[in-house]
Amino acid sequence: MSVTQPPALRIPITNSSANGDYTAQIAVGSAQTPANVILDTGSSTLAVVPTVYDPSSDAHVQATPLAQDVIYGTGGWTGPVLQTQVTMGSAGASATVDAYIAVTSDDQPGDFGQADGIMGLAFNALNSAYNLESYLQEQGAQQDVTYPWPFQVAGSRAAIEQFGTFLSRMPEEDLPPYFTALGAAGVTRNIFAFYTRRSVPSATNEQLNSGFFILGGGPEQSDLYTGEFVDVKVVDDLWYNTNLLSVQVGQGNTVAVPQLSAKDAKTAISNSIVDSGTNSLYLSAKVFDALMSGFQALPGSFVETIQSAGQQGGVPNDSLNLEDWPNITFALEGATVDSVPLTCSPSTYWQLDAPNAGVAQFMIFSSPMPQSILGLPLMNNYYTVFDRTQNPYGAIRFAAIAAPS
After folding, report:
1. Alpha carbons 355 and 337: distance in angstroms, whole number
2. Whole-angstrom Cα distance, residue 83 to residue 102?
3. Which positions ≥6 away from 166 have C-beta within 8 Å?
4. pLDDT tens digits along 305-338
5. pTM value?
6. Domains delineated in the chain
7. Helix, strand, or coil here: 84?
8. Cis link prior to 355 (omega < 30° from 0)?
9. How far apart are CA 224 and CA 192, in angstroms?
């Protein structure tokens, strides 16, 4: 007997409201309150700001004794965890499930840019919460749930980190993220995809700032890509962990990328991840140095231009001739073959007209961490499918992005 698959939902996204991160609209609770959330494969928590979603007016909400405390590279927040209905998509083509959602009661201002929160698309291990029921009872609190929020935490990174240390002494559990809950309920298939063209907003062409998020599908959206898919192996589900094998600038030397030391592998697992929530290529020092050496070996002033962009916050568009700049090839371990080469083009590692018209930004940076983050400048070259239907951890499938029709 054939089984009917849930339909894939094509959801419009934009990078205009979150400094380059792509956002989509969700609807929360009984009032279907709209919230514009960042779509992030580098985290798993669903969280919204209290100025947008008021749980006291949600007839469907259930308070819990759980709390979360999350620190990002650009900020952090803490607050209660609730359960309520969350919907993606529009009327007649939507996906709804009861899900855990946090309210960022205490946060650093501007955590999400102009977005209303974040939706993490990674796995359960990044969606940890802390159970405060026993603590609240021991303190003689009038409630044994975390909403209304019984704490006051200063909106600074240090205060949020300190509160996180307090929470870490409480019983911890991993919660199913929204996307995982959809799959478990059979509402959508365990697969999603991104169609994007920019890693930071264009100041001159708003159309370039839009794209699509495909919920519950990917390869069937044949108008969004050309050619065949190549499949990169996901080696662990802490993040979307991948093995970066080598890097090459143009036709220059291919430089092997070392795997992590045993010490670093205990916490980071692998030497790279693919992250839709990072609008740059944030490379380990060894990979970045190999990249700069590759540029230095070419005739011309490539390195000097890159350095000028870093020092001045950009260079004039008309000082670049992108046709003269080389492609960068990152080779990753394949799901079915040893190595999969992925190309990052000059038009994506340089972002023209950003942040202002006539200015170009270089979107590759050196990281103090041993793990490289392969963010939007690589994804912008490809229709990128996160296929979690493959065992054991899934595969990331890449096909050349199609020009918009």
Report:
1. 39
2. 9
3. none
4. 999 999 999 999 999 999 999 999 999 999 999 9
5. 0.95
6. 12-184 (2.40.70.10), 218-401 (2.40.70.10)
7. strand
8. yes
9. 13
